[in-house]
Amino acid sequence: MSHILVIEDDEFFRETLVQMLQKDGHKVTASHDGTQALAALDRIQPDLILTDILMPHMDGMEFIMELSRQRNKTPLIAMSGGRRSITSAFNLESARLVGVKVTLAKPFTHMALNSALREALA
In this predicted model, what pLDDT tens digit does every residue of 88-117 receive, in sequence order? Predict the structure, then answer.
């Protein structure tokens, strides 16, 4: 299976996501924000990156833009649940505008996650 880097600031959601991916046989490295994820990329070469959009320190959009500057071609899935004034649809459309091909609106099912993984890794 694949090595997946998960970037999610919500600890409960991050752990749930890690457990789902591991149950499916994936190796998972977890980070709580974009800054920690960039440091992880100095040590690992994931097959796919799954990143939240709204996070403290370095958010998902900043992380995606930094990967682009570094010419990192690792497939990405952007996910967002939105916040009061910013919808998940707005966040995910913003990610698409900077080149992310696969997105997930939170909350999502295990089936939707697996579908997104297949699409991103195709």
Answer: 677 677 777 777 889 999 999 999 999 999
Encode pLDDT of 7-61 as tens digits: 999 999 999 999 999 999 999 999 999 999 999 999 999 999 999 998 988 989 9
Secondary structure of 53-98 as H, E, C letters: CCCCCCCHHHHHHHHHHCCCCCCEEEEECCCCCCCHHHHHHHHHHC
How far is Cα 37 from Cα 29, in angstroms, rounded to an integer? 9
Place of tokens 């995606």: 64
> Could you tell me how many residues make up the chain?
122
Residue 94 lies in a domain: yes
Domain with residue 39: its CATH number is 3.40.50.2300
Task: Tell whether 118 is covered by a domain.
Answer: no
Among the listed residues 120, 104, 112, the one whose alpha carbon sits nearest the alpha carbon of residue 2: 120
